């Protein structure tokens, strides 16, 4: 019997507390998800490039990328553009977590290749709910 590989999530956020909260929320929602956290784009890109052809279902090191927007916006745009321009990585979905932002900024994230932009939840229960819905959507099956 073949076992399905665990989904792999790569989280990049400069804020250590935000990384820990996201990691804990994923663990709370699904025990089978493998989470890797990074504090900067360079480390994330190194990890993704090492994993090309690896174990993720997208033939990369991750099945989903979550970018926290504590970093300067331009850096986030560059990271997304770099991932989406790489044939071995471009199929990996990217979620951007933001605070309140103008519609033009959100549109720019979608234009550059982000799959989803989510306003960062403030309360723990809200974060867990967002992570659960994210897992249901990207790792199925989605129940509405």
Which regions are unreliable across 5 or more consecutive residues at pLDDT < 50?
A: 53-58
Oligomer: single chain
CATH topology: Rossmann fold
Number of strands: 5
Average residue pLDDT? 85
* Number of separate domains: 1
Tell me the name of the CATH class.
Answer: Alpha Beta
Principal-axes geometry comes out as globular
Placed side by side, the strands forming the largest sheet appear as 2-1-3-4-5
Radius of gyration: 14 Å
The succession of helices and strands, N to C, reads EHEHEHEHEH
Distance between the termini: 31 Å
Strand content range? 15-25%
The major pleated sheet works out as: 5 strands, parallel
Count the DSSP helices.
5
Description:
The protein has helices at 16-29, 41-50, 73-84, 103-112, 124-139, and strands at 8-12, 34-38, 64-68, 94-98, 116-119. The protein is an alpha/beta fold. It has a single domain, classed as Rossmann fold (3-Layer(aba) Sandwich), CATH 3.40.50.2300. It is built from 5 helices and 5 strands, in the order βαβαβαβαβα. α1 (16-29) packs across α5. The protein is 43% helix and 17% strand. α4 (103-112) links the parallel β4 and β5. Strands 2-1-3-4-5 form a 5-stranded parallel sheet, sandwiched between helices.
Summarize the structure.
Helix content is about 45%, strand content about 15%.
Key words describing this protein structure:
alpha/beta, Rossmann fold, 43% helix
Q: What is the strand and helix layout of this fold?
A:
Blueprint: E1 8-12, H1 16-29, E2 34-38, H2 41-50, E3 64-68, H3 73-84, E4 94-98, H4 103-112, E5 116-119, H5 124-139
Parallel strand pairs: 1-2, 1-3, 3-4, 4-5
Helix pairs in contact: 1-5
